[in-house]
Amino acid sequence: xxxxxxxxxxxxxxxxxxxxxxxxxxxxxxxPFVRSGLAAGEPVAVAVPGYNLAPLRAGLxxxxxxxxxxxxxxxxRNPGRIIPGVLRAFADSHPGGPVRIIxxxxxxxxxxxxxxxxxxxxxxxxxxxxxxxxxxxxxxxTRNLTPVVLADxxxxxxxxxxxxxxxxxxxxxxxxxxxxxNQPLPAPADAAELTVDAANLAQARELARTRARHAGLSExxxxxxxxxxxxxxxxxxxxxxxxxxxxIWTADAQLVCQVDDQGTLTDPLAGRHPVPPDQxxxxxxxxxxxxxxxxxxxxxxxxxxxxxxxxx
Length: 312
Description:
Number of helices: 10
């Protein structure tokens, strides 16, 4: 299985999907990719689920010490965190030349709630890295992922690699994927609700603290929930028509908070742009992505809903 990627002269960014059926095909597709990067003097990072990280480390042998290895189930638990916190964090730290990354954000145990955010992430990678000399190889487990997931992978990756070789994806259309998964979020059956404006921001924070403690979250998580809710409702007050509707409920061992307002997000990468430490503005959605276990979003003309999850 060859993972040599052609066509870099036309577009320096390369985003192939690696379709593998078993451990042997996984290693045949990933180990040479890493080693060829190392041989060329390129920085290499690997962010894959832990159960794939261990055999890959073993397959690399001593070369593993020259690679940044991350467990994606931790680093990328929230898909909205992967571009700024994993991919851009590594690529931006090596600005002088080509960079290689293996990123596996979709694995069989991802929930139905998580998957839309995962596939949107895969589509947005193409916008986030356009024009950059970076290669991001994304493995897909063809035996255990559904046909829908594999079809979406063909739409979000311009190049496909499997045991038969490499080919251009005729289905590649990341913008169509972004649009298809920008769907209204289903309403909760039972939620505490509060309309928030500049006059009762403190009441929103108190509701967040109370509901988080009632759900059994740790005190550190309570602080995170309060901060995330504050960022979301403040963003609605500043950019969403002066107020927002906050709803909080529990479902599937998670505390869920959602804020709806009358604004429209026009930047598809909102919340995924890294922000320098000394920049104090435009950090809200980035912070929300970093502190939440999952972020779902729907935006349209005069309407935006952002839903965040915290596991307990």
